[in-house]
Design goal:
The chain is mainly α and about 90 residues long. The chain is built from four helices and no strands. The two termini are about 25 Å apart.
């Protein structure tokens, strides 16, 4: 995304999506809390930082998507026809 802005060149049509990775992280935290909570003596407060991380990354991902949409408006989207040699 940064190189697209600097070079004023279109983005590729597929940007990575972070929602799946974030959902997997939350699922693993939930699974760990359910299975290991009693054995390790962890409390809800112990997981606050991980949940804050997941929340913040979700907000950042939304802002990155917005920036990507603006770049699409400015430079369009890179397709195969644009990169063919003539």
């Amino acid at each position: 995304m940064a190189s697209s802005m600097k070079l004023e060149y279109p983005l590729t049509d597929v940007l990575p999506n972070t929602n799946h990775a974030r959902d997997k992280l939350l699922a693993k935290i939930f699974q760990f809390r359910r299975e290991e909570k009693d054995g390790l003596g962890t409390k809800d407060e112990d997981f606050a930082l991980l949940y804050a991380y997941a929340l913040v990354t979700g907000h950042i991902a939304k802002h990155i998507e917005t920036i990507g949409e603006e770049l699409d408006k400015l430079f369009k989207v890179l397709d195969e026809e644009m990169i063919k040699l003539q």
